[in-house]
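Listing S7. Sequence submitted for prediction.
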Amino acid sequence: MSKKYQEYSIEDFDKFDCLKLSKRFYLVLLFVLRGYIVWLMSVTNMKDRVSTMQWIYPETNLFFLSLISGVIGLWVIVVISLRRPNSANWVKVFWPYCRTMLVVALLFDFIINLISFFYWQLTSITWLTCQGLIVFSLITLCFTSKRMEINLIEFPQALPQK
């Protein structure tokens, strides 16, 4: 059991003696939630609220579909933010499946882009290829991360008071 922790230092652990979350969690979340990030950037741009959104999502329907696929990412953020000792039982139940939920969100987002390319002709083949490469890379990162694997096994426990 202790061999899996030997490459980590004291700074890699949080106040509950759990390994801090992998940066790969956050990288995947950034991609899954890009629709919401673009939406926030466009809302905060006082000069031109639409240009940022149109630059990243030339077709408005793709933006809305990205928001739909990002709902899973929002759910993962809720679970991550409520992950602490004495949290509700549903958080403990959902926590080990966060990686699976992120992979499902990535695949769902890619399927939406496939449909938008083949059925609605909303995207280009270049965008679809880039999207596929990014999704494949992020899924690979999710399953090759030892730290993420440890994160999903651990759940914070209340430490005894000194």
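Caption to Listing S7: primary sequence and predicted structure tokens for the chain studied. The chain has eight helices and no strands. The mean pLDDT is 90.
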